């Protein structure tokens, strides 16, 4: 069985959510970050490293009892690229790497399994990206997966996984996982998105 190192990005400041930290908001009865981490930790052969930053103590506490490692990125305010780099440096060596933001409320174990299978069929060195055709054109989703070679390029600064132009700039690297599953494409960035997803307003303590 191949080993997969999963990088869970949970360091951001959730600025569009206002005063709330979206990763601590309840989804299906548990903090969003815990829901995502629990699903990832259940995958066979996977080792999860969670990158913390903003409100690291609170987010880390939400992960208590789960089989996940944590590391704190002191440069989290520099953006997602800094957290990706930090996490890949600190993740365990593996055959493949999955990189995912923590705010995916519909992501399932089945979604992750399908992505892993797609990556297993990709050419050596590829970056596997979930895609679907949306009303305004192609949509890129998360998580994405990369090989050890691509991981080394990211660490060396050769690939910016946080860049929306990745598909245009490096089409030679991309292996597309075509999927209709909302799990890859629905995230929570605003109070309005949280209300749509959960049918609830922000808790009073987070408003």
Explain the overall architecture.
- The chain has helices at 32-41, 56-62, 80-90, 109-120, 148-156, 166-169, 191-198; strands spanning 4-10, 26-27, 30-31, 46-52, 68-72, 96-101, 127-134, 137-140, 144-147, 174-178.
- It has a single domain (4-197), classed as Spore Coat Polysaccharide Biosynthesis Protein SpsA, Chain A (Alpha-Beta Complex).
- The chain starts with a strand and ends in a 9-residue tail after the last helix.
- It is of the alpha/beta class and 207 residues long.
- The mean pLDDT is 91.
Write the layout of secondary structure elements.
Elements: E1 4-10, E2 26-27, E3 30-31, H1 32-41, E4 46-52, H2 56-62, E5 68-72, H3 80-90, E6 96-101, H4 109-120, E7 127-134, E8 137-140, E9 144-147, H5 148-156, H6 166-169, E10 174-178, H7 191-198
Parallel strand pairs: 1-4, 1-6, 4-5, 7-10
Antiparallel strand pairs: 2-3, 6-9, 7-8, 7-9
Brief summary of the model shown:
With 207 residues, this protein is of the alpha/beta class. It contains seven helices and ten strands.
């Amino acid at each position: 069985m191949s080993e997969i190192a999963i990088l869970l990005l949970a360091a951001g400041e959730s600025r569009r959510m206002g005063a709330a930290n979206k990763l601590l908001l309840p989804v299906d009865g548990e903090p969003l970050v815990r829901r995502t981490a629990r699903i990832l930790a259940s995958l066979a052969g996977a080792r999860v490293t969670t990158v913390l930053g903003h409100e690291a103590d609170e987010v880390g506490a939400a992960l208590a009892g789960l089989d996940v490692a944590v590391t704190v990125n002191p440069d989290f305010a520099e953006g997602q690229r800094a957290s990706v780099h930090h996490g890949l440096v600190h993740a365990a060596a593996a055959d493949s790497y999955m990189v995912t933001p923590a705010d995916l409320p519909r992501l399932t174990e089945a979604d992750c399994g399908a992505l892993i299978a797609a990556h297993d069929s990709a050419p050596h060195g590829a970056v596997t990206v979930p895609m679907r055709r949306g009303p305004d054109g192609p949509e890129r989703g998360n998580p994405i997966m990369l090989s050890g070679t691509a991981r080394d390029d990211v660490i060396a600064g050769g690939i910016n996984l946080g860049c929306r132009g990745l598909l245009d700039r490096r089409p030679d690297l991309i292996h597309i996982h075509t999927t209709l599953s909302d799990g890859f494409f629905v995230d929570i960035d605003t109070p309005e998105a949280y209300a749509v997803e959960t049918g609830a307003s922000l808790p009073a303590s987070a408003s």
